[in-house]
Design brief:
4-stranded mixed β-sheet, 3-stranded mixed β-sheet, 3 helices, alpha/beta, globular
């Protein structure tokens, strides 16, 4: 017997607004019945588990022990700029001069996530090695 990953749950102060942010990040829609003010909202990903946002009364108090890592379809640095425009903040810049590395961002409620290099950027770096 095995277990299947159903969703990734994120506790938050405003489920609908945070889900809207992640909907923009991923380009995927909210659940068909999700509305402003809902305390539980989902982002319906094409593959893998659902991103599930659940409103809770307690605030975020420490660094995430589990976080999402994103691999953009286009250049990493362009995606970082786009996410900053959507409301993310830069937490740590781990990008290297040779193009390796990643950027650590936080969503509007402070949940950290990483933006990795695209597959094409990784292939170009590995081909030049």
């Amino acid at each position: 017997m095995v277990s299947v990953l159903q969703n990734v749950a994120v506790d938050c102060a405003n489920a609908y607004e945070l889900a809207r942010f992640w909907s923009e990040v991923t380009g995927r829609p909210l659940g068909p019945d999700d509305r402003p003010g809902d305390e539980e909202v989902a982002v319906m990903l094409t593959e893998g588990p659902v991103l599930y946002f659940s409103q809770v009364p307690e605030p975020k108090t420490a660094k995430n022990r589990l976080h999402l890592c994103l691999r953009p379809e286009g250049p990493r640095d362009q995606e970082v700029a786009r996410l900053l425009e959507l409301g993310a903040t830069l937490v740590a810049d781990r990008r290297e001069p040779d193009g390796a590395g990643w950027a650590v961002l936080a969503d509007p409620e402070g949940n950290e996530f990483c933006v990795l290099r695209s597959a094409a950027e990784r292939a170009a770096t590995e081909a030049g090695a």
